[in-house]
Amino acid sequence: METKKVKFLEELAKAFGIISVACQYAGICRRTYYHWKDTDPDFRREAELIMEVQGDFVESKLLENIKGNDTQSIIFYCKTKLKKRGYTEKPIPKEDSEPLPEYSLPDSPDPAPQVKPEVLKKVENKKKYLVRLLKKEGKYTAELSMQAGLVAQLLVKTEMLADEVFAETHEAVSVEYSREGNKRESVSVKERLYLDYVSKSQRALRALGMNTDARERKGDGKDSLDDFLNRFRDDDD
Question: Which of 192, 187, 130 is nearest to 161 (CA)?
Fold first, then answer.
């Protein structure tokens, strides 16, 4: 993949999927982005992957608000996801299809119906573990509950990416050849995305006061990201 394309994908991940911001920092126009997307299947696939990851992150925040009984978030979800059930201010066109089967609504909305149960369990276990550590150090307050949940989601996503990055089939370096036969090597987008999530995880843990810089800890080697991830993995087991 060309260097400019790789640069754009990096900026797209940093910009949380906002195309205009990524174009600005990558030094290209929006029309160039759509041209690459239409003509380069590999580029399109990697861009869509970044969009999906960022979309999952944003949607998780919406679902957290819904779990917290935020009225506006509940209304927004109903208007966007449950239109066919009548949650819309516009008339719904009739469709020549069989009616949906009747069923009883659950007591509360599913917090994340698209997420596998085992992933939800990992997130919940990590959140509980974070809360236990905060309480042990006398740092926990009720206001930190949502932040601990978001940090737990971020750590789980980092571990999922790590499983792919450290798999035997993963190639950390992408190799391409130009029309002239020149060899080009670049770090794969998935590899860069994983490193980006590692950095975000470090910042998130530090924001909770749980992953202090080595300078502040005087080089004692404790509370590194690897230590936290290993301890979280053990806790899941």
Answer: 192
Buried b (16+ CB within 10 A) or exposed e, 100-131: eeeeeeeeebeebeebeeeeeebbebbbebbb
Quick one: how many helices (H) and strands (E) in the chain?
Answer: 10, 2
Q: Which residue has the tokens 């130009």?
A: 178
Beta strands in the chain (DSSP E): 173-177, 183-187
| Structure-block tokens of residue 68 | 């917290």
Cα(154)–Cα(229) distance, rounded to whole angstroms?
11
Whether the model pTM is above 0.70: no
Which residue in 2, 73, 65, 83 sits closest to 35, CA to CA?
2
Alpha-carbon distance of 233 to 153, in angstroms, equals: 14
Place of tokens 């036969």: 181
Note the residue count of the chain.
237
Task: Give 130's pLDDT tier (boundaries 50, 70, 90).
Answer: confident
Tokens linked to 16? 């949380």
Task: Quote the CA–CA distance of 59 and 54 in Å, as a whole number.
Answer: 9
Lookup result for tokens 């990697």: 46
For the stretch 65-124, pLDDT in tens is 888 888 887 887 777 777 777 777 666 565 555 655 554 545 545 444 566 788 888 888
